[in-house]
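Re: folding output
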Amino acid sequence: MSAVIAELNALVLGLFIITTIAMTVARQIGACMQLFIVQSLLLAASAFLLGASPVSWHLIALGCVTLASKVVVIPWVIRALVPGEVHQRRELSQTIDVPAALLISLGLTLIGYAFALHLMRSAPSLSPGNLAMGIAGLLVGLFLLAVRIEAVPQLLGILAMENGAFLAGIAVAPDFPLIAELAIAFDVPLLAFIVALLARTAYRRMGTTEVGGLSALRERVH
């Protein structure tokens, strides 16, 4: 890898973890969605950069799959199914306040970085930046999933975890089989479709998208 590509990739990785942390403190679904799109663009950019020198068609294919499924299809599915008034709400429900969420996210980033350093001692050939920021993104996405109590932000937390896992996967196994990439291209948008459909139904019947209200929704349906 050339020095220029390495520096560009380092910049992309820094922006990736910043957008992931920002998702934990965003107060609107629309803002979370925009941050997820930017995060997915950065994931694709890292795949393209690492696949450029030396040329790896697997990484280039991964970047294309990411652009198509996470930058185009998933946001379109969520915007099409979730009512517009949900996107326009000013405040999202969250179990902890913003300063605490920010501090915990930073702590999880440091834990992910330390864990990546431990792994790199046993496998020096791994790409250090992608592995560290991928593990950190996975942990912060898990935290996002835990602190949000509404369906769409929780879905975005799952997708952020998946982005982090893929960023780390680029370092661990850069030559992904094409069948895995195609499977993800179909499975992840399907997950977004199901959760967005449930969120729309819950909002229309109960006026909220909180996950805790889905049990009440099930009782009403029965």
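--- second protein (sequence, then structure) ---
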Amino acid sequence: MVSEKEVAIDAVLKAAKLCQDVQSDMALADAIEKSDRSPVTVADFGSQALICSAIGDAFPQDCIVAEEDSEALRENPRLSARVADYVNRFVEGSPDRVCEWIDRGKGEVNNRFWTLDPIDGTKGFMRRNQYAIALALIVDAEVRFGLIACPNLPQAWDNPTTEQGSLLVAVRDEGAYMCALDGTLLKQIRVAEGPLRFAESFEASHGDHSAHVRITQELGITAPPIQIDSQAKYGLVARGEASVYMRLPNPRTPNYRECIWDHAAGIIVVEEAGGKVTDMHGQSLNLSEGRRMTSNRGIVATNGKLHERVLEIIRTVK
């Protein structure tokens, strides 16, 4: 019997290849704006269609909670056809069928579900910078398995001449690993005690930058922050290339709550690499409340050793 891990890895690697194809074909102009003014591209839709098709066919009893739906796509036949063209490089389906696969992601949170961000960091993708395909399986409110595929992430951050493309894989109680985008296992990954380095979102609106600066100063971090899009930041912590990743609420949007698909895979990758992930108050991230973590505020991911010190500093600056 095929395993969740095998199905998920195969689907995510195909989605990563689709995203690379979209970039190489210069198809980034094929994008629309959602109601919250965030962009969604051919690659977002195609990635979700591929992964939801694979998960839905292999595990029809499981629901999928994903970021996108096909409503806007169905209203745009030209864009729908473009998405289907890319999806059909991997699995055959009409534009209507592709929309049906995308809408498998309209499931609801329950005691067993998958959560998917088909492109985490769409703006980074459109800039040809960092983005990720993130998929996680949650059972009884705990992440059991997570994947983060980062097609543009060098396999060693401090040596950008190394091969690009990293797949980060974590299974509960089995550790975290990095693979190449052909699925080849490269190494087990672990957090590092040092050097002290800080990662944050590239988009200024995604956090409280001034608070981040004050906290890093209190920690004695002098290196400039690593500012990149997507859950690749969790990957840097898990690989020992950053010691802290914070996403504290922006004062302009104090009521914002994080979406589960933006963090679920990153949580298990960091934890299985030996780190720790909580909200800004030290509470575990609650993935059982719905599409957003309504009882949590902010995100703090560290190498574990620094975690309590970071939370202590946050209490003094927030």
